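Lab notebook, design round three. We kept the backbone fixed and only want residue identities now. Task for the bench partner: fill in a sequence for the structure below.
Input structure tokens:
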């Protein structure tokens, strides 16, 4: 019985690993309190991973009401934010600590 449970656990891990391998990654950089690029185009209907690299010395908070996400990214560090699957459309986001300059949008198409 223990052997079957062990095999099931291995199969589950392989399935999770395969699903994660298919997740596309998109990079965002924060420099001088701006998101670069300002617009990220992702495939509609798929879960994707945003890698947000904060190159500023100060923290920033990635926030989006439409994406239902908020995450603080300390200075000189990075964060992973999973989004989707999304319907086709535009989803704005902003930096909570620098709203005047840190603006961006995710475009799902």
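Proposed sequence:
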């Amino acid at each position: 019985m223990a052997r079957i449970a062990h095999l099931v656990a291995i199969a589950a891990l392989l399935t999770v690993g395969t699903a994660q391998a298919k997740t596309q990654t998109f990079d965002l950089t924060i420099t001088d309190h701006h998101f670069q690029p300002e617009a990220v185009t992702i495939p509609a209907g798929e879960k994707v991973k945003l890698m947000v690299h904060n190159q500023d010395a100060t923290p920033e908070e990635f926030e989006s009401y439409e994406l239902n996400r908020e995450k603080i990214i300390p200075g000189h560090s990075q964060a992973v934010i999973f989004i989707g699957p999304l319907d086709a459309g535009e989803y704005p986001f902003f930096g909570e600590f620098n709203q005047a300059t840190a603006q961006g949008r995710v475009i799902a198409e």
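Keep this in mind before ordering anything: The first strand starts at residue 24 and ends at 31.
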